[in-house]
Amino acid sequence: MGQLKRFFIGSPLRTRQIAHEKLPKWKALAIFSSDALSSVAYATEEILLVLALIGFGAFAYSLPIAIAILVLLTVVTLSYRQIVHAFPSGGGAYIVAREHVNTPASLVAGAALMIDYVLTVAVSISSGVAALLSAFPSLLPWRVELAVFLVMLLMILNLRGIRESATVFAFPTYLFILSILLMIAVGWIQIWKEGWHGYHAQGAAPAADMWTWAGMLLLFRAFASGCSALTGVEAISNGVPAFRSPAPRNAAITMTWMSLLLGMMFFGITLLAYAFGIAPKEHETVVSQIAEHVFGRGPLYYVIQVATTLILFLAANTSFTGFPQLTSIIAQDRFLPRKLTMRGDRLVFSNGIALLSVLSILLILVFHGDTHALIPLYAVGVFLSFTIAQWGMMKALLREKKKGIARIAVIGFGTLITGLVTVITIVSKFTEGAWMVTVAIPVVVWMFYVIRNHYSEIAKELRLDLHFQPQQVKTKVIIPISGISKVVAQSISYAKGISDDIVAVTVDFDDEHAGQMREKWEKWNPNVPLIILRSPYRTVIAPLLKYIDTLEKEKEENEFITVLVPQFIVRKWWHALLHNQTAFLLKAALIYRKDVVVSTIPFHLHE
Amino acid sequence: MGQLKRFFIGSPLRTRQIAHEKLPKWKALAIFSSDALSSVAYATEEILLVLALIGFGAFAYSLPIAIAILVLLTVVTLSYRQIVHAFPSGGGAYIVAREHVNTPASLVAGAALMIDYVLTVAVSISSGVAALLSAFPSLLPWRVELAVFLVMLLMILNLRGIRESATVFAFPTYLFILSILLMIAVGWIQIWKEGWHGYHAQGAAPAADMWTWAGMLLLFRAFASGCSALTGVEAISNGVPAFRSPAPRNAAITMTWMSLLLGMMFFGITLLAYAFGIAPKEHETVVSQIAEHVFGRGPLYYVIQVATTLILFLAANTSFTGFPQLTSIIAQDRFLPRKLTMRGDRLVFSNGIALLSVLSILLILVFHGDTHALIPLYAVGVFLSFTIAQWGMMKALLREKKKGIARIAVIGFGTLITGLVTVITIVSKFTEGAWMVTVAIPVVVWMFYVIRNHYSEIAKELRLDLHFQPQQVKTKVIIPISGISKVVAQSISYAKGISDDIVAVTVDFDDEHAGQMREKWEKWNPNVPLIILRSPYRTVIAPLLKYIDTLEKEKEENEFITVLVPQFIVRKWWHALLHNQTAFLLKAALIYRKDVVVSTIPFHLHE
């Protein structure tokens, strides 16, 4: 086991090595921006999928929707640059809300972020697999298996530690950025040379029922689906401590670069899709269709598909950085199990990484790795946490009073807009799956409070008055035996060392055997009384428990009862199957008894 | 858990209730003969399936093959009536071979029987499901699920105890016998009135390539497949102790009745299939086709199908009686884990029942619940154990010298014939799957020897010289702590009661915290030294283990080290998730250490 762990996870790192795990900007961009950048792989497609419900003519609306999303991106980026400077210790919306709004708001943000991290893994991996299947349709039957395998691969990489990941992961991010920008550039040269091919050229008229309520709702839903492009722009604000110093400044610069790249790629792809007249297909992504249109199914097409899969894999990895950090902070505040604060021996929050892996694999299994089915759940949490973070930021700035009015206005506007988008997202995608998130967030918040309450009560209960001095307390020792052997002799030796009040107990099914046992015991005479219990039901455990029950009732207030259970240490694992489980069953039955100490005495079998 | 167990398994029975679990003949027939009788549901079909490989004309050979099988049945029945009288304590081939041949032969018989019990469950349940699917084809997609469910149902019924099963099971056996006999009678009246419909009437000529080597091999394979009709006739000889006294006489009478019924039904069905010109179909059994031919799809047809399913369910149940009894006897001889000898609180061998369930479910899953795929594995073990049992019987009779020559000749002939059938079965079905059984039997026998060897060595190792007197041995006590609390105070009280040599140990990640801890400890001053271990890797377990290592090296020869591990007894199961697994991990790491006693001290949380 240990060797297997070393092989996958690597050797342990010392605590002081934490400091070395700081990232330069170009590596941090790869680690923290892949979530945001990779969303261009599916955002345009999700807009077109909703518009297709109105009619192909409605595809023209993808351009104003994309522009609205670009405006939203600008607003959010400006706000988050401020947050990075004001809260360099990371934690994003949760910490901002905790410091400047109140606990309930911070817990709502925390719940929303946790859910979105899990969704990021599920959506990115599903979408990455879709990109791969567009290029290699023969893999279609293994869609879900591939997705689960990729999540498990991510888990192993992250249990190894963040810095190695950054080195491994920088290359594909830049490959993706360059290949997508190349595709956009070549695409535009083609259009410039050959003219428009798409719906615009075909002069398709917008659907007539566009301006009804249902039509408007669909337009909003298309916008809300496109907003999935913005998921992950907050990742940098949660990861500031991982930057080289001056961390806040480097983080803010990285954020600006990320938003510029994101905006260019998203708008470029949406424009090309429109210009080429591309509609969503079941087993081929929109980006794959554009790439095929621009490059044909040549080497560059495959580079785009592979780079897309890789960056979506990195996007999922963003969650593997953010989620364990977030849950560790929440757990420090005692709203989550304390074990989430413990770093493993590679200096990462191993439990958080494992938890994220399990949850996202569950989501992938439930939704059969289908990106379109997961998208309606997505983005609600992101925009809710955007809103709460900016709200807290604005409150903090208003309190400090030294910041300019213009800046506060920008953030106030950002809060308003992202709050509006949250509502639009919930309303327009409610029946499609957004309802699940609106149920899940309160449930998670309720869980936070239950956990916190439990910890508070326990701490109260365990508190010790330092004037209290522990006194020596005697114990009675019980040795369950099935015959006379070296194991029994060893247990008696130990028992004599810890108490003067010892009794050996055996369970017998028939009187004859019991008599022989009594005779042999008296011949041996180890100065310990033997009690023989009769078992009408032929079980060993029940009569022993009954006997211990009577002793518990008879004993004095503070006295302990110690039960000695022999543990055979076998040389080969399968030998364990050959020795009676009686000891194991007895331990399991006794471990929840008050005042009963269970002591396991090892006996090494040499054979 | 306890209540759930009571609901499914029933209340515990007292040991003296064993005596009451004796069966009258008519109930014993239902319990022990269902395996043999039920095989008429598939034996004819398996013959025709092989003959179909030659051609429909070859179906005429089903009649001579059936007659050969009837002769074989007579021979085996006569032999086993002798065995029942000579070995009334049950155990069948295993005990006969152990007493009168030698240990290797008895182990081969034991392995063969064990494998066949598992196959009986898999084949009978698969075939029972096939009967059900013939009547209700809409259930087809759930074939494997249904089979697994039925095995689990059998497991629960058998964990409840044998007598209740007999009462529940008698009705369907007699329903099956009566309905099949009725079907045969009505079928013959129809033929008598209307003349032959089948191949005979159509004058189909036997295939020309019949008398080649390949053709002969197929004929032998058809015969070997038909021999599956004889599986289970030995069940009564293994179950003699369950009969009312005089048990051997009652068992012998029951066996004769069983063979008569089996012969009539098997030959009747084979004859009707031939007369009606019925060929095997993929999703409908031969018996279903006959029943439809005779009764149409009316109520009587459904009675036949349901009765067939039920008796095949009972056939599987035969194994649930025989397998645990057999493994209990083998385990008493120390060739299997001792836990197979332990009766559960309903007086049945619970572990044997559970083992049989697991193995047969595995077989059903691997072979997708397909009877035809399982049949080639079947019967090899049965005929091998028939041969060994008769061989042993013959040796015993020759030794006693008081039995007549004629009787010995009958059994010698039986031995010869069943030995021949074993060889035919292996050779003719070798590539179809019989090879698996010829591999599995030696593997199981090898396992028997490995287990027996291990037990012998251990017994030698544990043997105690009664002149040896256990001496008092001191222990050093280690209390791992993470802070100062009531839990620590309680542990120290216990430690002071069992030793004078106590040390508290804590693991710390940073110096500042360690200093505070040291200061607080000195203020408290419980008269126990505190050792603070530094952890460069931020893990708690590794430094503790290293510290215990050093103590193990320093201590005297016979001294023990006791590690006190607190166990929080939580009020609700999920509270366990909120308390650090450190104690659990520590216990797991220490339990295999020599000379280290792990003592679990309960601390009840009231919140």
From TrEMBL, chains A, B:
<feature type="transmembrane region" description="Helical">
    <location>
        <begin position="169"/>
        <end position="191"/>
    </location>
</feature>
<feature type="transmembrane region" description="Helical">
    <location>
        <begin position="257"/>
        <end position="279"/>
    </location>
</feature>
<feature type="transmembrane region" description="Helical">
    <location>
        <begin position="373"/>
        <end position="393"/>
    </location>
</feature>
<dbReference type="GO" id="GO:0022857">
    <property type="term" value="F:transmembrane transporter activity"/>
</dbReference>
<protein>
    <submittedName>
        <fullName>APC family permease</fullName>
    </submittedName>
</protein>
<feature type="transmembrane region" description="Helical">
    <location>
        <begin position="211"/>
        <end position="236"/>
    </location>
</feature>
<keyword id="KW-0812">Transmembrane</keyword>
<keyword id="KW-0472">Membrane</keyword>
<dbReference type="GO" id="GO:0016020">
    <property type="term" value="C:membrane"/>
</dbReference>
<dbReference type="Pfam" id="PF13520">
    <property type="entry name" value="AA_permease_2"/>
</dbReference>
<feature type="transmembrane region" description="Helical">
    <location>
        <begin position="47"/>
        <end position="73"/>
    </location>
</feature>
<feature type="transmembrane region" description="Helical">
    <location>
        <begin position="347"/>
        <end position="367"/>
    </location>
</feature>
<feature type="transmembrane region" description="Helical">
    <location>
        <begin position="107"/>
        <end position="133"/>
    </location>
</feature>
<dbReference type="InterPro" id="IPR002293">
    <property type="entry name" value="AA/rel_permease1"/>
</dbReference>
<keyword id="KW-1133">Transmembrane helix</keyword>
<feature type="transmembrane region" description="Helical">
    <location>
        <begin position="139"/>
        <end position="157"/>
    </location>
</feature>
<feature type="transmembrane region" description="Helical">
    <location>
        <begin position="405"/>
        <end position="427"/>
    </location>
</feature>
<feature type="transmembrane region" description="Helical">
    <location>
        <begin position="299"/>
        <end position="326"/>
    </location>
</feature>
<dbReference type="InterPro" id="IPR053153">
    <property type="entry name" value="APC_K+_Transporter"/>
</dbReference>
<feature type="transmembrane region" description="Helical">
    <location>
        <begin position="433"/>
        <end position="451"/>
    </location>
</feature>
